[in-house]
Amino acid sequence: MDETPKPKSNFVRDIIDEHLRNGRFTKVHTRFPPEPNGYLHIGHAKSIHLNFGLARDYKGLCNLRMDDTNPETEDMEYANAIKEDVRWLGFDWEDRDYYASDYYGKLYEWAVVLVKKGVAYVCDLSVEQVREYRGTVTKAGKDSPFRNRSVEENLDLFARMRAGEFPDGSKTLRAKIDMANPNMLLRDPLMYRIRREHHYRTGDAWCIYPTYDWAHGQSDSIEGVTHSICTLEFEVHRPLYDWFLDQLGVHHPQQIEFARLNLSHTVLSKRRLLELVEGGLVGGWDDPRMPTISGFRRRGFTPEAIANFADIIGVAKDNSIVDMPLLEMCVRENLNKTAPRVMAVLRPLKVVITNYPESKVEEFDAVNNPEDESAGTRKVPFSREIWLERDDFMENPPSKFYRLSPGREIRLRYAYFIKCEEVVKNAAGNVVELRCTYDPATRGGDTPPDGRKVKATLHWVSAGQAIDAEVRLYGTLFTVRDPSSVAEGVDWKATLNPKSLEVVKSAKLEPSLAGAVPESRWQFERLGYFCADRRDFKPGALVFNRTVTLRDEWARLISSGRENK
Ligand code: ATP
Ligand code: MG
Fold first, then answer.
1. Same domain, 277 and 224
2. DSSP code of residue 163
3. Which entry of 35, 294, 488, 529 is 20 to 30 Å from 98 by CA?
4. Looking at residue 38, which CATH number applies to its domain?
5. Number of structural domains in the chain
6. Of all protein residues, whose CA lies closest to atom 18 belonging to ligand 1?
7. Same domain, residue pair 303 and 386
8. Residue ending a domain, choose from 258, 291, 307
9. pLDDT for 283-328, tens place per residue?
10. Is 474 found in the same domain as 424?
11. Residue 191 in contact with residue 209, Cβ under 8 Å?
């Protein structure tokens, strides 16, 4: 029996099914075409899952293509990071590692074809003049005075543009379409600009560069792409892309547009993310607060969780904002099944168990994952001095506080019942130590023979065997749901969350965490899921990132009106 779940249908699949039925295409060939001008973000993950997912489900192919037509902003660092991220998400482009810059020669030849057909011309108008001649949405544009140059003159000028005879910006090659077209993109769009810029791959071989609009559709055609899937803002470009392909009479992919992903409390725009990186407002592209794939990876998110998220949000035609808690839910769901449980104390308060022998250390069996029996158990040491979470003690507890307080008894997970007998304070009046007693009849955390119950079970770490760690806790990057929608003149960075990072320097971990390696993921009982930082975690300097809290904290925060603080 085939157990593979059937992919959810969506309008893109409907279009593809129709093409396969009516013979427009006999196979499915997609591509993921990032521009290497920044790191990939979760929006790109949606596109990656869509494109590679279609290829997988229809037994077709998906290419990886760097859409690198802009020498000023592109870089090999970005291209390499993109590849690493796509691979980490679990996709493989095999040998189809393509670059639009490899097509510069072909694109040039095809531009010459259009010049020869009399549908492209060299124009001497300046950038400002081109804009002025273009007209407006309500007003037709004006023909360029250079529009009717002869084919011979255009061929000569275009060849000399390429040969470097003219200064930057002095000439362009434009498609000759229609200066009165209601679609402004068809008003003689630019195909080439003169720009003496070093390109990260082609170096100084070219001084003219194709526009994105001229390069994109043709690159898809060269690669034999059948379905060129892009975000909605390219819908208005489609008539232009169709026009170029029809003029050339070459393989014609079908463009299909879908709504881009927007995620709450963050921005998904490489330009803006770059601004945060360059302004030092975050620690880099892979800062665990960033909505980048590499940021989420460092934070501890898993490829499985992102795949599930992409599946749940699906693809549609209308733009909307997806709430961050949905993504976090996917992460939690995945880590619940896979992350071993351990005990860690973030803000330690010393507890001395006065009736426990001084030098005794005993070990208790602790369950590694109640969701996965095969994960087994481990030994956790226990001794006279332990660390408890400072928050788990209150000297004067309100009626709803059930954890430790003077005179009260609680259960230490896996160990014993302990009772708080004395509170030790320093000169400033702060609690620095608790003195407790334990009941040997509760060994293993069992209910004692007298059947007495406690209202709380707390996590703890034995002080003598504890290992020190730094733990980084994260809040949302922005304090508002939609940071991009700011009024004219207002800085979109004004709503950055000043409390998005909290560093806890002296957390105490149970000794089994000595076996942690970078990127290993754990559940710290009662505290959340944590991931050993892939950059900063080193033997002797353990650094963990909190990936997500155990429960969805959002509902509570939103209902109490604290969301924006
Ligand atoms: P940004 O606006 O963040 O700079 P972009 O569209 O310029 O993104 P590209 O590198 O051109 O970035 O994007 C590569 C592919 O990813 C494109 O096919 C694009 O449509 C898709 N993509 C980009 N952002 C999103 C998003 N938020 N949701 C879904 N797909 C996206
Ligand atoms: Mg783009």
1. no
2. T
3. 294
4. 3.40.50.620
5. 3
6. 230
7. no
8. 258
9. 999 999 999 999 999 999 999 999 999 999 999 999 889 999 999 9
10. no
11. no
Own/partner pairs for 550-559, CB < 8 Å, 24+ apart? 550/332, 550/523, 550/526, 552/325, 552/328, 552/329, 552/332, 554/323, 554/324, 554/325, 555/325
Which of 424, 459, 494 lies at the terminal end of a domain, its last residue? 459
In a domain, residue 249? The reply is: yes
Do 279 and 406 belong together in one domain? no
Ligand 1 pocket check for 230: Cβ under 6 Å: yes
Spatial strand order in the sheet of 467-474: 341-342, 521-524, 528-532, 543-548, 467-474, 501-509, 344-345
240 and 166 co-located in one domain: yes
* Mean pLDDT, rounded, of the chain: 95
Residues of the chain predicted below pLDDT 50:
1, 561-565
The pick from 47, 269, 319 for probing ligand 1's pocket by mutation, whose C-beta has the most ligand atoms within 8 angstroms, reads 47
d(CA 230, CA 238): 10
- Strand partners for 524: 342, 528
Q: Which domain holds residue 448?
A: 344-459
Q: Give the Cα separation of 207 and 216 in Å (integer).
A: 19
Are 184 and 134 in contact by the 8 Å Cβ rule? The answer is: yes
Name the residue at shortest CA distance from atom 9 of ligand 1: 34
Residues 516 and 442 both lie in one domain: no
31 lines ligand 1 (CB under 6 A): no
Same domain, 205 and 149: yes
- Quick: pLDDT tens for 237-257: 999 999 999 999 999 999 999
In a domain, residue 4? The reply is no
Helix, strand or coil for residue 326?
helix
Q: Does the beta carbon of 270 sit less than 6 angstroms from any atom of ligand 1?
A: yes
Q: Are residues 370 and 440 in the same domain?
A: yes
- The catalytic residue positions are 35, 260, 270
Measured CA to CA in angstroms, residue 404 lies from 278, 387, 390, 401 at distances of: 47, 13, 10, 8
User: What confidence tens digit (pLDDT) does each residue in 339-387 have?
Assistant: 999 999 999 999 999 999 999 999 999 999 999 999 999 999 999 999 9
